[in-house]
Specification:
alpha/beta, Rossmann fold, Arc Repressor Mutant, subunit A, 5-stranded parallel beta sheet, 4-stranded antiparallel beta sheet, 8 helices, 11 strands, elongated
């Protein structure tokens, strides 16, 4: 699950990135607002963590631009600014949460998990029980069959994770392309090839397909 981090303090940036990656997230980190904004526009992120006082574009300017182009990536603001005006601006622009520096990394993780649960109905601490004895630990990105781990490539894992984050709902090819391949050029046959590879490693009905509707993974819990 991919998260964007904007933090211009090197030590903060590195420690947050390392902690979240150890918790199972994929983190793209940036040190200035312009680079972060370009990444959010060009890629799909489940969530963005933005510091306010950063070079080139500040966090508020990034949020405002995203709002103007109807980009609804959930945002957590982190800042040492404590005046109510700055906090108010962030919430008015649409941020989901606010953390004052310094903060505990565990608190950041808890707030991330709360947003993922609220916005996407994803519980990062939850092991999803699937049909036919399969389970998927979304925090670790591990698929198992009767407690035996199944090796998946990075893109196969992202595809399984996306389908599980849309439980029991058919997702069409365009939706999969936009979220798993971030809208990048890949033809339908190649996406179907990835699905076929996952089925070969699991079960023919692990990913269920329906002509005209798309693909889904059934979650039993």
């Amino acid at each position: 699950m991919k998260i964007l981090l904007l933090e211009d303090d090197y030590n903060y940036n590195e420690s947050i990135k390392e902690y979240l990656e150890d918790s199972g997230f994929i983190v793209d980190s940036f040190y200035d607002g312009q680079s972060a904004l370009e990444a959010i526009v060009d890629n799909k992120y489940y969530l963005a963590i933005l510091d306010i006082k950063v070079p080139k574009l500040n966090g508020h300017e990034v949020i405002k631009y995203l709002k103007d182009i109807n980009n609804n990536t959930p945002i957590i603001i982190t800042t040492s600014l404590v005046d109510i005006d700055n906090i108010t601006i962030g919430y008015q622009l649409g941020c989901k949460d606010y953390l004052k520096k310094p903060f505990e990394l565990k608190e950041l993780e808890l707030r991330i998990n709360t947003i993922l649960q609220t916005v996407y109905n994803i519980n990062m601490e939850k092991i999803n029980q699937l049909e036919n004895g399969y389970s998927f630990d979304i925090s670790a990105g591990i698929l198992k069959k009767d407690n035996k781990q199944i090796d998946l490539s990075i893109k196969e894992k992202e595809l399984v994770e996306f389908l599980i984050s849309n439980p029991n709902i058919f997702c069409d090819i365009e939706n999969i392309r936009e979220n798993v391949w971030e809208g990048k050029e890949i033809n339908n046959a190649d996406i179907r090839m990835y699905i076929r590879k996952i089925r070969l490693k699991t079960h023919k009905d692990f990913i269920i397909s329906h002509r005209g509707l798309g693909y889904k993974i059934v979650i039993s819990n």
